[in-house]
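Something for you to look into today, if you have time. Just paste the record in under my message, thanks.
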Amino acid sequence: MRALVVGAGIGGLVAARALRRAGLEVGVLEAHTYPGGLAGSFYHRGYRLDAGATLLSGFAPGAPLALVAEALGVRFPVEPFPEGFPLMAVHLPRGEVVRPVGRKAEREAQRDFFGPQVLPFWAWQEARAQALLALAPRLPWPPEREEFPRLLPLLPRLLPLLPDLFLKAVHRAPQDPHFLRFLDAQLLIASQAEAHRTYALYAALALDLPHMGPALVPGGVGRVAEALAEGIPVRYKARAERLLLREGRAWAVEVAYGGRRRGEREVVEADLFVLDVPLAPLLGLPLRAPKDAWGAFVVHGVLPFKASPPYFRQNAGERPFAFLSLRPEGEKTAFALSLHTPLGLWEGLSREEYRALKARWGGMALSLGEALLPGLREAEFLLFGTPRTYARFAGRAWVGGFPQTHPFRFPRVRPFPNVFRVGEGVFPGQSVPAAALSGLRAARLALQALGLSGNEGESRPSFPPAP
C-alpha cells in the first residue's frame, strides 16, 4: 500500500510518520528545499530565520506535541521554558503586562495590572482550556461522516462546553477597555480575529499558549519539522501541480521538479493521498481567500547584540498591532517582526506602487518594533515579506487559515474517498500543535478506511511500530 503526502509541513510530516509506522510505503513531495512550510526555517547570509511560526508551545505532558512525540517515537530538539519565565510582554497604552509561564504567576500578573475583576475570566479560561486539551486527541471536529460514532461517548464531556461554541470571547470578559484591547491583540495572533468575533471556546484554548509547554527551539522552529522529517523519504524541489482523479478517487499527482531536475515532470501514483497544501489549485480551481482573512507584513533580521527576555513582545499601543519574536544566536539575535495587513491593500498595484507600499509598511513596522526593542534598525540586514511574498512561498496570500469566528469554518478533511487534508486550514486551531494533531487525525482516518486502525477508542493516539 502506497501513501503519497503532498507538502512537508508539520501536518504532512506527522501523517507520513504515522502511516509509515503502521507499515505503509510512504513518500513525501515538497516544493521547497527544506521541510516545515510556514513552520520551517530558511538560511540567509549564513543565519537561520523562521519562515512563519516563531512561538512554539504544546510540549507539556498531555499537550499536542507531547502526544505526537509519544505516538510516533520522535524526540524534539527543544528547551522548555521554566515556570515563571517571562514568555511574552504586551505593551498597552497604559503600560506593559507580562505573560509568564505558569497559571499562578499569570493570574498574579493579570490581577496586578488589570485588577481583581479579571480573575473570574481567567478561572473560566483555565477550566475550558483543560477540558479541551483532555478531549483534543479524541475529538474529531468538524467530524467526517464515519467519525460520528466517536462523538457519542464524548457527549457527557462536550455538553458543558456547548454554550461557549455560540458565545464570543468578549461575552466572557470584563468590559474593561484596556483588558479588551489586550484580548484583541492576543487573539489576533492565534485566531486571526478580535475578541468580539472569536468564539469563546476557541479563545479559551488560544489564550492557554503560555501554559501548554512553550519552548525555545535553538536554531529555529524549523528544527521541529526536521526532526519529523528524519528518516522519511522526502523529495524536495518537487511541486505538485495537479491531483488526478478517476471515478471519484485520486490515483496520481502530476509533479514538476526544480533544482537539478528542473524541467522534468512526472506522474506519481499512489493508493492514498495526504494533502498539506491547498486543494483548489490541484483541481485546477482558483484559490479564494476568506473574505475576512488577513495578510502578514513581516520583517526579518539579525541584530548585532544579544537580546534579553521576554523573547516575544507585542505592541498593542496602536494599530496595527506588531508582534516581535527574538531568538538568541550566540551573541547575536535573530528576529521576526510581523503585522496584520489587509489583503486588498496589496492587490492591483504596479511595480512602483508595490515598492512604495512595501517601503512605507517597512518603515511603520520598524517604528512599532523599536518601541518594543530599541536598536532594530541596527540589524545586519532587513528582509521584508508581504502577502505577495507569502503567495509565492506558500501558495496562498493569507495567514492563519480561517479566522475563528465560529466552530464550523472548515472544509472537508476527506474530500475524496482516498484523499485526506491536514494543516491549519482544516483543523480547529492555527498553530503547530493543531497542525500536528491534524496529521494524526488524517492518519487515523486513512488507516481506518484501510481496515488497519485499532485505536478508535483510545484516549491517546498510538500507532504500531513499523515492521
